[in-house]
Design a protein that fits this description.
The protein is elongated. The strands form three sheets. A five-stranded mixed β-sheet has the order 1-5-4-3-2. The chain is of the alpha+beta class and 484 residues long. Strand 4 (61-65) and strand 5 form a beta hairpin. Helices cover 47% and strands 16% of the residues.
Length: 484
């Protein structure tokens, strides 16, 4: 996460910081000791003695970020550095907690409960109709003011207050950023922040500076907290759409007779284009008892807006828009998730919204049965189409349909201790390349040429004929698949 200079001024308040802060950007995510030789980074807070920064300075400690500075009433450089590092650790830990809550389906009250130490003041969240959604639970009834008590006890303020609020600030739903209500409206001066998405007002958060004035650092912490609430609203709304989309996608890829028009219409409303190229990627876990399909599906829907993830039986199905994000980029983004979750994936072939969604998922579903199933890997389904076809054909192709040369060569090899069966198979698989076949069989070129001449006599077929070669190779593959 990135912090502001005001937050550090608040964190270092025991050092009686003299602050000269003008830009106060939320950019700081690292700290280091200053020296004249160091190359300044805009994301770093620099700490040093005044004499390190200025030729005529003394030993007092200075913290600097861009043009913002904190001059501290101390010469204890190690103490200040450790204090700032503790601050970074504290806020990083809070950020990790909040992000984990956001990605694990937490409720709004969970975010408030995880932020008690950061907010420090009474705060509450109301929906667009001024109904209570969540609050800082370290303040109870009778500890703030009568409006706080009404919200906690009845879920909203009384009607007289709401009418007064509407008269005083009729356009409050359109306010941006931090805004203040003075005590003429509320028992205490209150700081507020609105939440909206796509122009729709979702609610507002209020922080009450009980027990004294609120510092700029506390307000910045409140703004950071509000950024997580905004993210929660975005995720929550996305999840509502995702639940409908998942249900529609699950129906369409499970039933060949299902109507896909509703799914197509919803995808178009989400910004998909009729000309977009789509592709299915099917994710599976080698160890089924330990799979985390629902968690992985939810996390991918949050992390990648160009994908739609849905759980299908024991798999996670990804519908990816490769016109928005190329297939190669999509693969690069997915691999770390696969490695971390111990899943592997099978990639289908591209199609459009107007193609049969059922057929294209069936393609990736079938080919996924034949991949190597190594966690962290993405396999291209087209590399496994033939093994699937051969495995299907072995159940339907009667031995009499296979080329008679196979049984002939098998019997001949048994009687004469030769290897003509494997030689012909290698020759056909290597597209009749003498060099490649000799290498595959570990034979001398002349030995191979002799065998091929003898093979043509035994098989009594013209190997220059492409249809003869195809018939022979298919027969070999069907035979081989029986042993797989």
């Amino acid at each position: 996460m990135k912090l502001s200079m005001q937050i550090f001024a608040n964190w270092l308040k025991n050092y009686q910081a003299e602050a000269q802060i003008t830009s106060n950007r939320f950019e700081i995510e690292a700290v280091r000791l200053f020296s004249p030789e160091v190359t300044l980074n805009e994301n770093t807070l620099y700490i040093g003695r005044l004499k390190d920064f200025f030729r005529n300075g003394n030993d007092r400690i200075l913290c600097a970020h861009r043009n913002d500075v904190l001059l501290l009433h101390t010469t204890d450089l190690d103490g200040v550095l450790n204090c700032v590092l503790d601050g970074l650790t504290f806020y990083t830990s809070w950020d990790n907690t909040m992000m984990n809550l956001l990605t694990s389906g937490a409720m709004l009250q969970d975010l408030f409960d995880a932020s008690k130490a950061v907010l420090g003041r009474p705060a509450f969240l109301l929906d667009p109709y001024q109904r209570h959604l969540a609050h800082t639970s370290n303040y109870g009834i009778g500890e703030v003011d009568h409006l706080w008590d009404l919200i906690l006890e009845f879920g909203s303020c009384d009607m007289d207050f709401l009418l007064k609020l509407n008269r005083t600030d009729p356009g409050r739903a359109k306010r941006k950023g931090l805004y203040v209500y003075e005590t003429a409206l509320l028992p205490h001066k209150a700081y507020n922040h609105n939440f909206s998405l796509n122009g729709n007002f979702l609610g507002s958060a209020t922080m009450i500076p009980l027990h004294g004035p609120i510092t700029d650092g506390e307000l910045d912490c409140f703004l950071l907290f509000c950024s997580y609430i905004q993210k929660w609203f975005e995720i929550h709304i996305q999840e509502q759409h995702a639940l409908i989309l998942e249900s529609q996608l699950r129906t369409v890829i499970s039933d060949p007779d299902a109507n896909a028009d509703d799914l197509r219409r919803r995808l178009l409303l989400l910004g998909f284009q009729e000309t977009d190229r789509l592709i299915f990627i099917k994710l599976d876990a080698p160890l089924k008892p330990y799979n985390i399909n629902e968690h992985l599906s939810r996390s991918l829907n949050i992390a990648f807006p160009h994908m739609l993830a849905a759980t299908i039986e024991l798999s996670v199905c990804l519908l990816c828009n490769v016109s928005r994000c190329s297939l190669e980029e999509t693969k690069q983004q997915l691999v770390p998730w696969l490695k971390n979750s111990k899943y592997y994936g099978t990639v289908g072939t591209c199609f459009s919204l107007w193609d049969s969604i059922y057929d294209f998922y069936r393609y990736v579903k079938v080919t996924s049965l034949y991949v190597k199933k190594e966690a962290g890997m993405l396999y291209d389904g087209k590399d496994y189409v033939l093994p699937y076809l051969f495995s299907e054909m072995k159940h339907t192709a009667a031995p009499t349909l296979l080329h008679p040369a196979l049984s002939l060569l098998t019997e001949y090899d048994k009687q004469h201790h030769t290897d003509f069966y494997e030689t012909l198979y290698a020759y056909l698989k290597n597209d009749r390349s003498i060099a490649d076949t000799a290498r595959a069989m570990n034979l001398h070129r002349n030995t191979l040429l002799y065998r091929l001449k003898r093979l043509e006599e035994l098989v009594a077929e013209d190997l220059e004929d492409s249809m003869v070669r195809l018939y022979l190779l298919l027969s070999f593959e069907i035979e081989k698949s029986k042993d797989a």
